[in-house]
Structure formats: C-alpha cells, structure tokens
C-alpha cells in the first residue's frame, strides 16, 4: 500500500519523539525527518494583516539561538536562465517544509529579503526551524505551522490530523461527546507546542479531513474562541484537493463569518494536480478556491486565503528545475489575480517520496527577486603568445 502524506508525517513525528539523532546522521535524516530541537524566536508581522499578540516564550528555555547570516556560495551552480518575471505586485509562491535536509534554504530566504521581495509564505509541519529562519530574514513572511501528533505519555500518541465524531471512531485515550469538547481537548494537547514556537503566525489543526463538515464547523468555532484567548490565530479547514463539495459551502461560510468578525484567522485549502502539472489540471482541482470564494462573497464571509499545500503529480516526485519553476510561475499569475490570496506553500522541501525541490531554490529566487543568482565567474588565462 503506498504511503500517504498523512501517514509519512505521522511516522516522522513518532520517531522524533523517541530518538535522539546527532546532526551528522545524514542518511537517517534523509529518510525520516530533522530531529534537532525546535528553536524559538520573536513573532514578526505577517503580510496583509496585523497579528494578535503571541503567547510569550517560556523564560525557562533561555534566549533563542542565533543563526549567522547566509553568505553567497561562489562555487554554486548557476540556475537556469528561465526568463520569467514575477507579477508586478510580488510573488505569492512560498514553501511547504517537512523534516529532512533543507539545503540552500538560508541563501534563498536571504536573497529574497535583500532584494526586498521577501518570501510570501513558509508552512512547516512539526519541524519549525524553517519558520524561525524565515522570520529572521524578514518579518513580512507569513509563517504557518501544524502539529501532526501529540503525546499523552511516552508511549501514547494521538493523531492530531483528523478527529471524527465519537460515534464513528471514539478515542480510547480520552473522551469527548461534542465537537466543542473535542476542540477543548485538542487545544489542550497542541497548546504546549504552540507556546514553544511563537515564531508561527498561524496554526492549522486538521489536515485533509474532508468529511463531517458540519461537525468540523462546530469544532472550528470553539477552537477560535480558545485560540484567541491566548493570542493565537488559526488556519481553518485545510481540506484535500478537490474539496470542499459545493453542498457544504454553508458550513465553511459560517466559520469564515465568525473569523471575519475578530481574531484575524485565515482559511486554508490544498490544491494539487493529481497527474501532471498544475497548469494542466482542471479548474475543479486547481484554482477551485475561486468557486468557493464566489459563494463566500455572497455570504459576506471573505477572509484571507492560504493554499497551504500546492503541488504537481499528487505530491509525488520532483518534476525538475525548469519545469517546476515554470509551472509555479503560471500558478503565481493565477494567484496574483485574487487579492484575498496571501500565498501558496509549494510542496515540498524535505524528505517525502522524492518530492523535495531544493535544487530549484536558486532558480525560484531568480524568479521571485528578478535578479540573477549569485555566481562567481573565472575567465581563462590568456598567454601572451596566444593573444598575438
């Protein structure tokens, strides 16, 4: 049975909770996830909105570590000259990051920041180091985080990606009878991690949970109350590509109306081409969000949108530097037409089914900044006799 994104990320979380791996163990890091301790940092200002004050970091942790500025690598391979130009208002292409190696990330973030085109969005799952780095280089980058699993005890893991009504799959470790009670227990389990990572602007909860829409709406309404009390913002919903079905738009709308009233929360969706490139996918899979937002506008329920996962080939495999950047440049032009879109998190940096697009970061920086990659050119020596 092929492993799903949800199962893979859950495995990585489980290993991270039981093992301590030195940073030099490259092979295992490439297979599972980065198991380094999560740093903390001061939350900056996210694009388009002013966030609520974050929860204070735990003073017992001491001062957060510092990261020296990245420097250009004179031996780096030049990125292909793709002759692409980001939209005049700036690129909305961001990064989705899972555990593993993130080679070139510092240089990419720094290049974009120095060119005054900071990366629009960085979305992290469990490993929040990339969000810390993004905020170090620019406080204008919106950071989104999600916790895959929480632990009631060392041997008692709880999957945090989808909680169904109790009549379907009752929790063995604890009990809830309503969506509101589920939200209270959920928040109790994730809040310690949220507190340790104030660098995250917006927290997602469920992941691609594309069912029980009314129950989820009740869950999110209660979660917003709980989050706001401690100064957190939520990324609502995050359904899988091709969702939500039109018949459930009213459930999405009632949570978005509440979010619009106060709390500065956002809506999240996922968009994938299931087979091929984004630009080749039908509109009921890619740019489907426009149909939903036409309905939300009628219901006076428009809130900012993040496509918190966007990818080619259903998220399996890297298509290559030139194809990848060209495809996301097309997607960027689509997103730029819709002012309510903050950005998309391109799937993915890190180790998942050969999907890491780390090799494309220099070319992506060229596109976002409109400037060529940092390279150093050495001209050949010319002998006097040869010059005659």
Separation, N- and C-terminal Cα atoms: 69 Å
Lateral arrangement of strands in the main beta sheet: 1-2-3-6-7-8-9-10
Strand content: 5-15%
Helix content: 25-40%
CATH topology: TIM Barrel
Task: Give the count of helical stretches.
Answer: 11
Rounded average pLDDT: 82
Helix/strand order, N-terminal first:
HHEHEHEEEHEHEHEHEHEHH
Sheet of most strands: 8 strands, parallel, barrel
Q: Output the CATH class name.
A: Alpha Beta
Which spans of ≥5 residues are poorly predicted at pLDDT below 50?
6-79, 375-388
Tell me the radius of gyration: 21 Å
> What characteristic shape results from the CA principal axes?
globular
Quickly count the domains: 1
DSSP strand count: 10
CATH architecture: Alpha-Beta Barrel
Structural class: alpha/beta
In a nutshell, what does this entry contain?
Helix content is 32%, strand content 14%. It has eleven helices and ten strands.
């Amino acid at each position: 049975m092929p492993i799903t994104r949800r199962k893979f990320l859950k495995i990585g979380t489980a290993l991270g909770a039981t093992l301590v791996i030195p940073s030099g163990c490259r092979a295992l890091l490439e297979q599972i996830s980065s198991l380094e301790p999560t740093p903390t940092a001061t939350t900056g200002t996210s694009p388009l909105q002013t966030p609520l004050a974050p929860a204070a970091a735990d003073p017992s942790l001491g001062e957060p570590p510092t990261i020296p500025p990245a420097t250009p690598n004179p031996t780096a391979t030049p990125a292909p000259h793709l002759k692409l130009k980001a939209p005049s208002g700036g690129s909305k292409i961001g990064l989705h990051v899972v555990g593993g190696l993130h080679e070139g990330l510092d240089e990419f973030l720094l290049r974009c920041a120095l060119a005054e085109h900071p990366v629009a969005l960085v979305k992290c799952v469990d490993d929040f180091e990339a969000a810390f780095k993004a905020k170090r280089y620019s406080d204008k980058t919106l950071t989104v985080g999600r916790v895959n699993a929480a632990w009631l005890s060392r041997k008692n893991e709880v999957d945090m990606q989808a909680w169904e009504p109790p009549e379907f799959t009752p929790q063995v470790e604890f009990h809830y009878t309503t969506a509101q009670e589920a939200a209270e227990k959920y928040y109790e389990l994730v809040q310690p991690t949220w507190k340790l990572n104030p660098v995250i602007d917006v927290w997602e909860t469920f992941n691609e949970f594309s069912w029980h829409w009314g129950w989820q709406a009740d869950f999110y309404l209660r979660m917003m109350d709980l989050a706001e009390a401690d100064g957190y913002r939520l990324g609502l919903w995050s359904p899988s590509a091709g969702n939500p079905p039109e018949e459930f738009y009213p459930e999405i709308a009632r949570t978005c109306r509440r979010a619009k009233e106060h709390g500065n929360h956002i809506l999240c969706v996922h968009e994938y081409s299931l087979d091929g490139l984004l630009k080749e996918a039908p509109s009921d899979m890619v740019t489907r969000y426009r149909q939903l937002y036409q309905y939300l506008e009628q219901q006076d329920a428009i809130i900012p949108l993040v496509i918190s996962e966007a990818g080619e080939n259903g998220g399996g495999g890297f298509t290559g530097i030139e194809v990848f950047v060209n495809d996301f440049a097309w997607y960027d032009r689509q997103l730029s037409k819709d002012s309510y879109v903050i950005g998309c998190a391109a799937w993915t940096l890190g180790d998942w089914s050969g999907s890491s697009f780390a090799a494309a970061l220099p070319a992506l920086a060229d596109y976002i900044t409109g400037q060529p990659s940092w390279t150093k050119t050495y001209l050949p020596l010319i002998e006097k006799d040869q010059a005659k």
